[in-house]
Every structure is written in C-alpha cells, then in structure tokens.
Amino acid sequence: xxxxxxxxxxxxxxxxxxxxxxxxxxxxxxxxxxxxxxxxxxxxxxxxxxxxxxxxxxxxxxxxxxxxxxxxxxxxxxxxxxxxxxxxxxxxxxxxxxxxxxxxxxxxxxxxxxxxxxxxxxxxxxxxxxxxxxxxxxxxxxxxxxxxxxxxxxxxxxxxxxxxxxxxxxxxxxxxxxxxxxxxxxx
Length: 187
What we know:
Layout: H1 21-31, H2 34-49, H3 59-81, H4 97-100, H5 105-109, H6 112-121, H7 124-138, H8 151-172
Helix pairs in contact: 1-3, 1-8, 2-7, 2-8, 3-6, 3-7, 6-8
C-alpha cells in the first residue's frame, strides 16, 4: 500500500506555470493601493523607531502587510533578473516634481534602475530582515531599538513601490488602434 503524504506547505510559487515578476506586481497592486501601502509602510516605520509606543492597527492587518511586502520584494527581484526582456524605457516627457516622488529623472525614465540599485545594495534576505524587524518593533514596546540602519531599506522600498507602479502603468498603456483609413488596402 502506498503512503499518501499531504503537503500542508503553501503552494505559492510552486505551480507548474511560473509567474513572472510583472504578473506578481499586477496582483500586488490589484490587492493593495499604492498610496495606502506607502502610508502604512511609513506608519510602521515611525512606530518601529519610537521607544514607548506601538501601532494601533490590528495585528492581522500588519501581518497581511508583512506578507504582501515579502511577495512584492520577490516580484521586484524577479523583475530585476528578467530585466533584459522587459523594456519599460519611455520617451522623455515633462513631468512635474510631484509625479516623480522619490524617483530621480533617470529612474522615472527607466524604473528598472531602482530595482537594480536596491538589490545591488541589499539582498532579499536583508529586505526580509528589515520588514520583519519593522513589524516586530512596531507591534510592541521594547527597550532596544533596531540595531541596523532602517532608513536606507525604507527608502529603497518606497522607491520600489513607485517604480513598480510605473512599470505596471506603462505596461497597461497600449497604443491606440489604427483606423481603417490609415491601413494600406489589401489587393
């Protein structure tokens, strides 16, 4: 008789059809609003560095955010690895400084630079450690502050959110269909 083993582990990423980083990003932004995500990231960061306070959000919301950001970082890493196949450069246009956010003009032009720079400085494990530490320190009162610099990964995450949103936005813009009058006639 065969032993049948049930796998209770999460099947995320174990399907035979591999998901691309862009598909994962699209799913992330379908479930999470950009402004709300950046605001919650900022709130968690603020409470993580305060000594005598903890975040007022429901812990389940924080845990969901933690898991969503972990998948977001992995999607960003997939995008960075497949960067040669993904062309998101656009023609330069006059952009207001508010639209740029934290991105430089070059990063706005080519959002892939944000992911390259972030993963050149920090590995996925370091970003995981950063997110876990932020969540841990924001949920309770502790005598000690985080032992590492938390500002640089925070800035990278914020820039990655902006860059990913730009990639998804530009991917979804399709050229206007040509009218029949401009198409050559078939003979």
